[in-house]
Fold:
Amino acid sequence: MDNNELNADYLKVKNKEYNIHIHDPWIWEEQAGILKRAADCLLDKYNASSKKLFSRIGGAYLEEREDIYDLNLLGVYYMLIGLSVENLTKKIVLMKNPELEKNLAVIKSHEMRKLMQDYNIKGFENYYGLLDNLRTYVIWKGRYTFPFDFSEITQLSYHPEMPKDEIDSLYQELNKKFEQYAKIQQLRDNIRLDISRKDFLDVKKEVIRFIEPKGRHLCVRDITKAIKTVDEISEKIGYKKALVMMILFELLDEEITMQSE
Structure:
């Protein structure tokens, strides 16, 4: 085997590994968690140094250079939080739109709010201001002392306060949405449907008729209850459990999206 053949085999292996990493939701979730953990550790350092500074009597003198560095960790904290949120957001977009795995350029941007709007990720409208602030830190404010694009200049040295409880709430809500789509992707990966999309939609209508309460529209609570009794539903309507479960998760996503609009 010559070097060209070895290189070709190596590239095949790396390409396969690359595609696995793109597709596997838990790799993205783990990276988001690592970034969040690193950010929280830096915030602890920042808070400890701030406490040390303001506990000094008669001035703001710090003896160690590291203390001075620690006082400037807030921007890096925001940058890492932004990257963590970005990991979750982009994988949610990919799981909701699996065809994009072949065209990652469309999610290369750091514009998290725009990604949510473009790909109909609902429920985060109250966090748009926070997402825009985090975007600034990911692009330059957590990395450099000035932006390379003059249009990005705001208040160079000022770090606007972004409450940690709001940041943690955003992360938790994204994690919930992430896990919801991860379950849908897992079902999609495990099911090899031997029916057409038209037949799938016919089964979906049958599932809706079976679980929809009389006199009112199907709601999230009804679908959640149905998921817990999927074995019984599958047996009664005569379709495979995996297919019924996939339909229920699709219904859950549609209902949550509708309520968020």
